[in-house]
Amino acid sequence: MLKKKLITLLTVFAILAVSVCGSFLTLPKVSAANLIYDDFESGLNGWGPRGPETVELTTEEAYSGKSSLKVSDRTETWNGPMVDISDVLSLGESYKLSVYLKYVGNSYSNEQRFSLQLQYNDGVGDVYQNIKTATVYKGAWTLLEGELAVPPHAQDVKIYVETEYKTSPNPQDLMDFYIDDFKATPVNMPEIEKDIPSLKDVFAGYFKVGGATTVSELAPKPARDLILKHYNSLTFGNELKPDSVLDYDATIAYMEENGGDEVNPQITLRAARPLLEFAKENKIPVRGHTLVWHSQTPDWFFRENYSKNENDPWASKEVMLQRLENYIKNVMEALETEYPTVEFYAWDVVNEAVDPNTSTGMRNPGSNNRTPGNSLWMQTVGRDFIVKSFEYARKYAPSGCKLFYNDYNEYEDRKCDFIIEILTELKEKGLVDGMGMQSHWVMDYPSISMFEKSIKRYAALGLEIQLTELDIKNPDNNPSALERQATRYQQLVTKLIDLKKEGANITALVFWGVTDSTSWLGGYPLLFDGQYKAKPAFYSIVNNVPQLPTPTPVKVKYGDVNEDGVVSSTDFTYLKRYVLKILSDFPTPNGKIAADVNGDGNINSTDVTIMKRYLLKVIDVFPVENK
């Protein structure tokens, strides 16, 4: 591959001029300041086939100049041209990537979907990310263009083009096609606003304020900066959901190596690793999302012998309950082993189990991957899966981690009735700590009174309340629409604070996404726009937040980490297990204060030694009491 360093801005501008205006002259592949431009006038420039197909230079068609790249002899939709750009991209930086495509041929229809894709290795295996999928029209050059940030941990970074994936492609899906003028242009990312209030500081004393993010959303530097400034809670958008953590190949290998044991599904944290590393490095508490869900769970998990054959039978209830327990156990143990310092302060144990449109209030049995909304948990286990999920989560979750049921439209009366029924049973068994109210709102629904009524009903059960996935759908960004959205956010948060003051145990407010441009909803639903700038909605909720009275200083008995009134060997055991990271927290709210018996602000082996000396009566008082 011919790569030349451009050492002057003049040359960079010349390349950009060529890319915009057409090819008055032809240039080989060039790179500078991590800009890449391939016009295929002097060679393949490192491009080649992904499989058995043919990738070659041709003068049959060209968007600019005389040549382009032709792809032929394809047998699968994923066959297409690919290039390795690992050595010219700056990882963690944002790029605009684009390529022109064309196809011709009388046997083809006038439209075909194509995709521009990213592939990289995350240290465990290959990861694939769509950059842009669009319709290409026969006989016309079409631009596929998208923006992304390559994750900082990526290796073997490749770009490729394919026709849209199909399991059973027809001859048109395997068509010949041409590409030309591929570009990867660095995007100047904006700085976040550092001089505005921090959300986590504004609401300190009321509740945690969190954000949800995926690995791709987190890749740009301003996204990381924004999260660090505003949030003290992090939710992973997809990376801890069942289809991300269940490892099919490892599961099959385990079954074959262990005499056909089909009840111990294996898991991997590979998808979540970048987010876990970010949480570890920045000491951000994490809401685990989500353990058990009818959606984003592969069908093979529910079949006998983990079969991928659609005609094979579902596993029995007995087998599925064993799989459920081992799955939850394996997730919790992997997190504790690989990321012992990451604090999981809450987990969504069961997500969206209720369907108020059925007579039972539960989802219909069946595969969600065949009929959206159906539940294979209801198919294989029945309603018992909810209680069992919480039993296993309580058994294996870290000490101090709160367990939540999580659902949407949770403010509607009929759905709330069914949720209350579930929560009441779980509460009576000591299995649930909180209700996760997703809070995906639109501009006119729900009403504030509906919201207030539902929170009071959940709070009456003695549960924590967390708004777990807040956004307010808004398709318009004109000033009046943004002000209307701001009023909506302000009404919601004001009511939340009022309810908190009235005694509702509201402990977290989590926004679902980083900026409008990456929101799953599209449009403009969040507090920050696509340039990471605060919107009117942000200021509507940070202005005029009532200050809480200064709390009375907590009085603790040092050494008494379980607050039973005495310092004993039980307290010593708790302290030692905490320092050894066997426990992630102490059993009482003031345990950490009581455990710092030398008053240096840290809880470590020094405190263990001092506690031991105190219990052996070598010392009469703790050092902190002499300060």
Automatic annotation (TrEMBL):
It catalyses: Endohydrolysis of (1->4)-beta-D-xylosidic linkages in xylans. GO terms for molecular function: endo-1,4-beta-xylanase activity. PROSITE patterns: CLOS_CELLULOSOME_RPT, DOCKERIN, EF_HAND_1, GH10_2. This is Beta-xylanase. Residues 554-624 form the Dockerin domain. The keyword Repeat applies. Belongs to the glycosyl hydrolase 10 (cellulase F) family. Residues 193-544 form the GH10 domain. Gene3D superfamilies: Dockerin domain (1.10.1330.10), Galactose-binding domain-like (2.60.120.260), Glycosidases (3.20.20.80). It comes from Acetivibrio mesophilus. It is an enzyme of class 3 (hydrolase). GO terms for biological process: cellulose catabolic process. It holds the Pfam family Dockerin_1.
